Amino acid sequence: MTRHHELEVGLNACGVEVCPHASHRQLCAVASYLHRPGDEDEPQSRVGELYLYQLHPADYDDRAESSPRDRWTFAPCATPRHTRAIFELKWAPATLARGDTAGNPALAQADAGGFVSVYEVSPSTPDDDDTAGDDTAGRRPGSSSSSFDVAEMASVRCGGGGLGMATCVDWSPAFVGGGGEYFGSCRLAVVGADGGARILAWRESGDLEVVDERECAHDLEAWAVAFAHPRSSLGSNGGFIFTGADDAAFKGWDLRAGLHRSPPAFVNSRTHGAGVTCVAPSPHDPHVVATGSYDDGVRLWDCRRVRRPLEACDAADCGGGTWRLRWHPERRAIACAAMGGGVAIVDWSGRESRSIDEIDEANGGLESESDVWEPGSLSVAFRYGGHGSIAYGADWGWKRGGREDVVVSCSFYDKGLHVWSPR
Fold first, then answer.
1. Are 401 and 25 in contact (CB under 8 A)?
2. Structure pTM?
3. Pairwise CA distance, residues 390 & 372, whole Å
4. pLDDT (tens digit, 9 = 90+) per residue, 44-67?
5. Do residues 173 and 142 make contact, with C-beta atoms less than 8 angstroms apart?
6. Residue 297 Cα to chain centre, angstroms
7. Nearest-angstrom CA–CA distance, 318 and 335
8. What is the pLDDT of residues 396-405, one digit of tens each?
9. What is the largest CA-CA distance in the chain?
10. d(Cα 376, Cα 344) in Å, to the nearest integer?
11. By the 8 A CB rule, do 4 and 402 touch?
12. 301, 287 in Cβ contact below 8 A?
């Protein structure tokens, strides 16, 4: 294992997301969360900051793809954005196609005030190039980085009941495909501490609004939401989402008939031993979905049988609550932020085989488990114990680029942001 660089951010770090686009692969967004209990003079509050860093090899040169990649470093590249306490950040899977801003990435945020906000991340103009210099934490002598502006494009309140917190957000993948790299309109899904699930519409005009909701999607706080893979039998046109919550339920929802009026397509409340904290569809196998839980386990599901998803293989024990799961962009491995268990790299030796449609065509509708599924096994290949407190975020660095596995992770109370390689 090689630990390349670590730094301390301003507030408690609770999430990290590396930009998935090749044109902006160096950008790393970090979420933070601070609860101020309040007293006789001040009410309690939950505040946060959004940090943006550039991640690159210490000797990186854009003109030399063969340059050394044995050391990686962070450099702040935008002024920290003060906001409500952040539960989740998620990069849009395509870049913006809005007037003269085509090609800029967009970032969604779910926060403790119950809002979902969408930010545009754009290069700073020459007059604003000094903005990143306001925060020099983590900058190494001699390092260089570009400057970016993080501008709010839209925000809508979608939390309900109780504390009204929005806890997780995901972008519909339906607009990605056909060689297109830009988007003008799409949908997002969000869940909240009230147990509700909501669908948001993002318009080409830049408006963001709630278009469908189910206030009691779960009996307790909901922590996880994800759209089905667009190539799965469920995910056509962004028409299916998965959710998870403190009621230990993993649920699926068909959006075509309306989230507000239809019962869940499936409910599994027996498998997880505690709350479901994360749902992560595989980018490699369209019907494979990973779930994380407070029971320390990572599980895989075959979701072809929409009314009764099958657990693919025995769960992998990560040694702590599996708060966030991020699939490797090129192979069947998962970076897992395992809270008190640090960060784990989980490998899966199985794969999805032929689709049910292909099998139906081949043998008249007869199917066997071996035809559609090679379950393999889940195993913890590596554990990173370098954090000094609860690990709430982990992601793979430099998606769609670079020659080695690099992991970015963060921890809460010590405000740590680390970049490291497991081998």
1. yes
2. 0.89
3. 38
4. 899 999 999 999 887 655 544 444
5. no
6. 18
7. 11
8. 997 655 667 9
9. 73
10. 19
11. no
12. no
